[in-house]
Amino acid sequence: MDFKAQNVREILKLPKPPQMETQLIAALTDLCFFDRPIQSSELLFVFGSNILHKEIARKITTILNEKKIATVLITGGIADYQASQYQNQAEAELILSHVPVSQFSHINFITETRSKNTLENVINASQLYNLRSVRSVTYFSHSYASMRSYLTLSKYCSAAHFYNYSIPILSTDQEYPITRENWHRTDYGRSLIWGEFLRFDVYGLRGDFPVQSVLKKIKEIKFLTRK
To answer: φ and ψ at 71, to 5 degrees?
Structure first.
């Protein structure tokens, strides 16, 4: 099936998850989440997001006021997958429109506006900026995809130190946003993280991003969910 032609996700955003006990929850948390406090960096890399544009822009602005950043690279085209929130403007442009760029004349802003997924975010960005020369990166990504985002970016920024901000997207229950601590407390969160595991199992194992460092965890999750 040509997923791109059909605008269909190769892996469902919210697949049906297995029964989740404590050990599986811990293993999925370790696999999917990456946390390393933000530091001054050569590059601030923002993965595309079709939601929370103002919130992301506010956080970018805060970091630019508090840390030394040389370049901001915001990625994301138009999300037109089925069941996505559709807007007829690139995600990168929507995010940047809420950043007071004029206040940061010393910073280089770059937008990448064609990508539709995490891998394309990085591949297309690498055509606009020499990622392989970067020595320090702070990146923004959805919290549940923070490890996959890190691994994808590390393939192209192999010499860099990484720091990140995990965007805590909303769940079906406002009390429990999708974070390392709360994702398993809602049906939505469990489905979302199970879909994230499937991306490791499919995209990672076929080579879209390096999984050597998390391969043991992937195997553990498969063992815990064997039938």
So the answer is: -135, 140
